Protein 1
Amino acid sequence: MKCVAVLVPLATLLVVSCNRPPTTAPALPAEHYIPDPNSVAFDIETIAAGNAATNWLASYSGGGKVARFRIEVGPAPSEVTGQANETQFTAGRGSLLAEPGSDATVFLADLAKALKAKSLPKHVQHLSSLAFDYVNLGEHESQAPNGNGGFFDVPMGNWSLMKVFVGKDGDCEFFLNMNPVIKKGRISMKDEDYGDCTVAALAKVL
């Protein structure tokens, strides 16, 4: 009788456990690009590379013109300490690379408007590549729903955020954000004082 008394509760426990619905992690909300007036978005496709860098083929269509360029972001071997609350950020180097047949006329005009550049560059010396330094500001971020250009940790998203330094001695800054899931990249204004130098630098490879 003692055996029966032990086995019956165990059997009941097993039946209850088996009938309990499985728990699942809550699904992340579907992402879509949210435009803002100080950014220009473009399409990206991840491309294979024979090195440790991450590579994307970027394109921007507008006014019958298509701008094409590649973005290569190397690994971030170093850490830098943020000024606020000693936050640690990773830093590295990357490149923007020119693509044959690109016509960036409209792209540059839209960038100039979003970045508050006062004029478009003239007599541009075109380059095959433009190196840059970057600081990684966050991973798995989601866009602010109000269209102010901000990002949040919660809910999680698929945006990677970078601050990029170009120009002589890296004295020109802008934000470069990438989301390979929705296949969107974005160039955003860091400060309107950098508008002219950012557009001038990008015009060399776009």
Protein 2
Amino acid sequence: MRKKYRVTLTEAERKQLVELTRKGKSSALKQTRARILLQADESKHGLSRSDAEIHEALGTAVSTIERVRQRFVEDGLEVALKGRPSSRRYERLIDGKAEAQLIALACSDPPAGHARWTLRLLANQMVALEYCDEVSYETVRRTLKKTR
């Protein structure tokens, strides 16, 4: 079967990958990806192994090997080793005004029948007072920790 993504390393890339695997100072995932690229290398000094042979040698899933090959060809060596950066952006659930109201609420006396404010009580009270549409106790915890 003909490969869609063919790995051909330059001497500099090959040297960098060999050093990376020999030092052992990087993460196991990064080292595995480096070994995949070294095994898949089709240059004159490379091993030029198939995905099945690399799977047998390294015990890595064939889909992982294919993905590393693809990332190397499309995005370069650094992305192949580190992976693509996440493009996911998180919207803030509590803005500055709601944060100030949360702190004021946490500093106030707890509701009747409670000795102190809990994170869940604070989260429920924030929604009840319509400071925000919804908020989890974990968001309340992070906000209070951040604003110690």
Protein 3
Amino acid sequence: MIKPGDRILVDIFENERFVDVIGTSKPWLSGRGEAPSLCRRCEVAWLDVPDHGSIGSSAFPSRVFKGMRMSGHMGDARITTRNLRILGVDKEENLLVVEGSVPGANGGYIQINKAKKPPRERRGFAGSATVDPLKAAKRAAKKG
């Protein structure tokens, strides 16, 4: 069992082929920034804040389309990327090389787990040997 203060090294992933990576997504913020909290009488504070202007068309289609990017808070959520293939384990440098995108900003903290549901082994996927269908059919006929 792991106790507080124990060192966890990448050698625990030596015999694994896939991992799940958990991280915090990058926040995506839009809007006028700090402007609404500033004094409205102070005209100088509003000069350096970008203004949105009009968001829709005037004559056609006379509406705002769904999905229009507007102010709000997106991101900064817990994201799990499943079944990232392990390309290499470097024990000396304690590095784990995975193929695919890892959630979060550069320099952020992530959690790496062994894959809960690794992909099934099938022909031509996940490094399994390619199976000749004719030979497989003959073997199945002999067994049956």
Protein 4
Amino acid sequence: MAEARAATQTMTALHATEPATPYLSLFARIDSFTRADLDDALFGSKSLVRQLAMRRTLFVFPRELLPAAVSGPSARVARQEYGRLVKDLERGQVTDDGAGWLATARKAVLARLAGGAELSAKQLREDLAELAGQVSWYEHKPYGAVLHVAPRVLAWLSAAGDVVRGRNAGHWRVSRPLWTRMDDWLGAPVSRCGVREAYAELVAVYLRTFGPVTERDLVWWFGATKAAMRQALSDLNAVQVRLEREQTGWVLPDDVDPAPPAEPWAALLPALDPTTMGWKDRDFYLAPALSSAIFDWSGNCGTTAWWDGRIVGAYVQDDAGRIELIVPTDPGPAGRAALQAEARRLGDWLDGQKVSALYKSPLVTWDR
């Protein structure tokens, strides 16, 4: 469990939109990792917490970063969600007063969950008349639908830090969260800080993990404004460095020396892994010609195969659950051997269990 928490701290946070991703991200980084290690950190000690934050994405945060996450990027998402909900509730004729409806729904949800209750969105909807109603979601889009409003209310409340995804009613590869009050889950309300202070803390941790980064990287990762990121860099006395790719990067003041050369390494990373998603400017680890094979139109990635610090392909499971590598360019004998070893290691750990991901590297689809 301690290693799971430490590895998450090292990466700042783990993407968790895909339920299996945090497990696979930690497996790729910890030789002795077991699923119970993450379960214990999430549901036992609660040293790691799932929180909706940057870019309306679900992350696993170290608990000590939760106040900054809730006060900064999560608060931004909560404001956006609230505004959309008010408009959709009124447009969908659920109510004439979206703001009043949400205030009543929030009070009802928190009252129902008081005392440590953990309930699914469906259970809450069935228990609370205050959550009744349906609204259009992504209207006029091919994937649009008319859905119950309850899950969106819970998403808003989670971004606001009022409720949290507690235990999972499904297995580790399926997301069936039971919702509970954040203050009950953690034993106390999440402390808050100013937005400026929150972003300074988060940007410092992000720079420690991913620096040097460009301003574009920062805006992308945090889903924030240039003004907010520039203020954070100023507050941290971040230092400008010249990047090999003829761009300006930023690092912390005590991190200006170049990193020592690393031995060649291989890794198989899951969909939305933080390393693959950590930068917006990706030419230094991904050939431009391969970018459209790894990232979809909105900038999300599926599985990736890495050799010597660069993405060289992807991987997929066959019908029997075995790992198949899809590597368009031969990485050479050492690269081939190292990637095959990782494929065997991952296959043995999964032991035939299939991981279904919403986000797939286009390369995987092209190769089928």
